[in-house]
Design brief:
The chain is α+β, with helices and mostly antiparallel strands. The chain contains two helices and ten strands; from the N terminus they run E-E-E-E-E-E-H-E-H-E-E-E. It has one domain: 60s Ribosomal Protein L30, Chain: A (2-Layer Sandwich), CATH 3.30.1330.200.
Length: 174
């Protein structure tokens, strides 16, 4: 996580696997491809948080502490933050972002699709935890740049398309 600060606003840059909760003077930034971010905002306290996870789950056989790279564990970490503030998930406005296809070609029907699986995992886990999704911008092709302003609860999304860079022929050495 990269932190930049000025007198009026703290700018947080989330990397994959990271989670941050903050107050109204905070903006959280991240870039998403097939990864997914969940933003939570409490309208009465103007506080909230965001996670950036990479995969739905690491499976049942993991030990140690929770890891924000996985949807199931990232949601649990978000719940820990909420419980620490004595709040209930239903008090938060939830928004879901990401799950973009990062490849030019379409996948065959039924093949493994981490972006799709990430979005489905997020929706399922949020519902089971008692959250209601207020808005989402998921799927499609390319990546997204996200900025979450905790003061207002607004999230700005900038879509960026996939570009193909063709390799130039390299000269041969003699």
């Amino acid at each position: 996580m990269k932190l930049l600060s000025n007198e009026s606003c703290i700018e947080i840059y989330l990397l994959p696997g990271e989670i941050h909760f903050g107050q109204e003077n905070t903006r959280i930034h991240t870039v998403l491809g097939s990864c997914v971010s969940i933003s939570l905002w409490h309208p009465h306290t103007c506080s909230g948080g965001m996670c950036h996870f990479m995969l739905p789950s690491r499976g049942k056989h993991h030990g140690g502490s929770l890891d924000g790279r996985y949807a199931d564990e990232a949601v649990e970490l978000l719940l820990d933050e909420i419980r620490a503030g004595n709040f209930h998930p239903s008090a938060y406005q939830v928004k879901l972002f990401g799950g973009g296809n990062m490849f030019q070609s379409d996948r065959p029907e039924g093949s493994f699709d981490v972006a799709r699986d990430n979005v489905l995992a997020a929706r399922t886990l949020l519902g089971k935890a008692g959250f209601a999704i207020h808005a989402e911008d998921v799927g499609g092709k390319g990546h997204r740049r996200i900025i979450f302003d905790i003061a207002s609860g607004n999230v700005w999304v900038r879509h960026e398309k996939i570009s193909v860079v063709q390799a130039m022929a390299r000269p041969t050495l003699r």
